[in-house]
Amino acid sequence: MTEINVGIIMGSQSDWPTMKEAADILDDLGIAYETKIVSAHRTPDRLWRYGKEAAGRGLKVIIAGAGGAAHLPGMMASKTRVPVVGVPVQTRALSGVDSLYSIVQMPKGFPVATMAIGAAGAANAGLMAAGILATSDPDLAERLDAWRAALSASIPDEPVDQ
Ligand code: RP5
């Protein structure tokens, strides 16, 4: 059975369209992952258990996305030494600035690697997880290099009228 090294967690089902961007990147790169709804406010016991067991279960990166009062990434970082990559989900009321501020300003000692707001941030969280895993996985490092090279090659030299 393939070992799962990446956990994608999110505060709500409503976060999934955003967090799927991270999952799509991991799929592209052939990285196994799990997806869970873990809410800091609605399912705190689930959060606690997930954080307590994460390292022992072999997780090496946790991608955590939440919106609004987005306490999930920070609380997860307080519960496990496994690196947490935070994704501020874009909200309707405050466009995700609330999510960003809730995630990014962690106190010294418990870091969250905070990505950009929304879909780009979620995709970059997948790439950040891939980069972390690639430091000890030469095959993945090759796949990640190829992915990056393909993206660069896809960018035209000059703009065209649309
Ligand atoms: C947060 O509240 C979730 O991460 C989500 O982004 C936001 C709204 O959740 P729902 O009311 O859509 O379930 O905890």
From TrEMBL:
Q: Which Gene3D superfamilies match?
A: 3.40.50.1970
Q: Name one GO molecular function term.
A: 5-(carboxyamino)imidazole ribonucleotide mutase activity
Enzyme Commission number(s) from the entry: 5.4.99.18
Name the pathway it acts in: Purine metabolism; IMP biosynthesis via de novo pathway; 5-amino-1-(5-phospho-D-ribosyl)imidazole-4-carboxylate from 5-amino-1-(5-phospho-D-ribosyl)imidazole (N5-CAIR route): step 2/2
Q: Which GO terms describe its biological process?
A: 'de novo' IMP biosynthetic process
Reaction equation(s) it catalyzes: 5-carboxyamino-1-(5-phospho-D-ribosyl)imidazole + H(+) = 5-amino-1-(5-phospho-D-ribosyl)imidazole-4-carboxylate
> Can you give the residue ranges of the PurE domain?
4-155
Please name the Pfam families in this protein's record.
Answer: AIRC
Provide the alphabetized UniProt keywords: Isomerase, Purine biosynthesis
Q: Binding positions for substrate?
A: 12, 15, 42
Q: What's this protein's family per the entry? A: Belongs to the AIR carboxylase family. Class I subfamily.
Q: What does this protein do?
A: Catalyzes the conversion of N5-carboxyaminoimidazole ribonucleotide (N5-CAIR) to 4-carboxy-5-aminoimidazole ribonucleotide (CAIR).
PANTHER family from the xrefs? PHOSPHORIBOSYLAMINOIMIDAZOLE CARBOXYLASE, PHOSPHORIBOSYLAMINOIMIDAZOLE CARBOXYLASE CATALYTIC SUBUNIT
Q: Which NCBIfam families match?
A: purE
This chain belongs to the protein called N5-carboxyaminoimidazole ribonucleotide mutase
Which species is the source of this protein? Litorivita pollutaquae
